[in-house]
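Following up on my earlier message about flavin mononucleotide. Here are the inputs again, as you asked, copied directly from the submission form:
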Amino acid sequence: MTKKIILNAFTQASVSPHAIGLWKHPDHEGHRHTTTDHWVRLAQKLEKGGFQAIFFADVIGFYDVYEGSARAALEQSVQVPAHDPLLLISAIAHATERIGFAVTASATYVPPYQLARQLSTLDHLTDGRIGWNIVTSYLESEAVNFGLDGLIPHDERYDRAEEYLDVVYKLWERSWDDGAVVRDVARNQYIDPSKVRPINHRGHYFNVPGAALVEPSRQRTPLLFQAGASPRGRDFATKHAEAIFTNTQNQKNATVELRAFERDITERLAKHSRSREDVAIIPAVVVVVGETEEAAKEKFEYLKSFVDYDGAAALLSGHSGIDFSQFDPDSYVEQLETDAIQSRLENYTSTNPDHRWTVREAILYHGLTLGSEAIVGTPEQIVDRLEELVVEGGVDGFNIRQTVSPSTLEEFIDYVVPELVRRGLYETSYDGETIREHYFGKGNERLAPSHYAHTVALDETKKEAVALHS
Ligand SMILES: Cc1cc2nc3c(=O)[nH]c(=O)nc-3n(C[C@H](O)[C@H](O)[C@H](O)COP(=O)(O)O)c2cc1C
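Thanks, got it. Here's what our run produced:
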């Protein structure tokens, strides 16, 4: 294998967001998430380990589907407190030089004009190290607190996000020409108004007449991440995303499942005149490393002993949109219709025909892994499996989930990364400078020419709603 794999550290600006109950683990430092020191230390370590990006997941609501209440989520700190990841990034960027930042922001609740401005600002401040994980959001509690009557139906969230992206592409790619900032003392002009144009967007969901507020940043459009899993989600991802997140499944045929996913993505990309090379496929994994296989297995059991049933049930109920308090823990998980994340229950139903998950088993497993594969073993065994997933499963890299913060990622860097490097699968140095270059190689600072964004034109026939020049 000659291809170098991509590594993201998967985290969230919260206490123990993806390992529920692990806040009680004696080595867990998640309570320090309120400090910049905590994040700077983690990012500096990741940068030494050559990670392409630190990935900030985010939700902007409470996990209150379980029992119709936020009790369990509050008691077990299930992604609450939820700090705003955008606000962390400039502090971390100042203390690092190369590592990229993939930050989650909702295309359902934040107005496109505001998010375009925020991400452009961060792309300037990080000198091109910003990526955006486009989510459409799945919690009812997000919808009501952001002014809606309830959750917008699943597919309509994606329709709305389509128009949202048209708006931000117009702002990022069309509104300002390169060279619009002239700083010309002789002409008494800081910006040349003829090089800045209002986007005149008038659509079904959004009206945005004006021009972008921020001059073009190094990447213009941030590196685009998305995790569409449903058919509608995959169509969206293959049209827009440059990196597609997915879950591995904890099952015997995970490699085959990933390969099937990869083939499906490749076919869908072609419909959007894109090729497989235009996109990186990045599944999430949990890694538990030990000096011996026995030590790693013991460690995994120890980690599992911290998982809290109610807290993990709150997480799975929020992800799936189904209140798991109604089920007997010893009954089997059944596939049900949902308007939340459609693929979440499939982890415990259709994707593994050899194994029937009980409700208890699924909840406890979800609490530690979110349904991803847990790779437990020595550094050699872990790298064997990662390599197999790349070669046989056809993926390009991994989101490494944290169970204990920051030691999960520190151990990965200290023990697994050297083995990846020894086998020629990975390098800890950076060729390029921007996050897009970390993914696609030096020189790839801006969206690929084949990307849909380049076809989004401004409607020049409309009278300018905001006059910028006479
Ligand atoms: C690795 C990964 C990370 C995700 N992070 C977030 C997140 O931070 N916030 C969020 O609202 N959704 C997140 N999601 C959910 C996705 O945005 C999406 O809703 C989900 O994959 C299901 O897509 P579907 O509704 O098309 O099935 C994530 C999904 C995956 C696989």
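One observation from looking it over: The pocket of flavin mononucleotide is lined by residues 57-59, 104, 135, 137-138, 154, 227-230, 233, 245-247, 284, 341-343, 399 (CB under 6 Å). Hope that helps, and feel free to reply on this thread.
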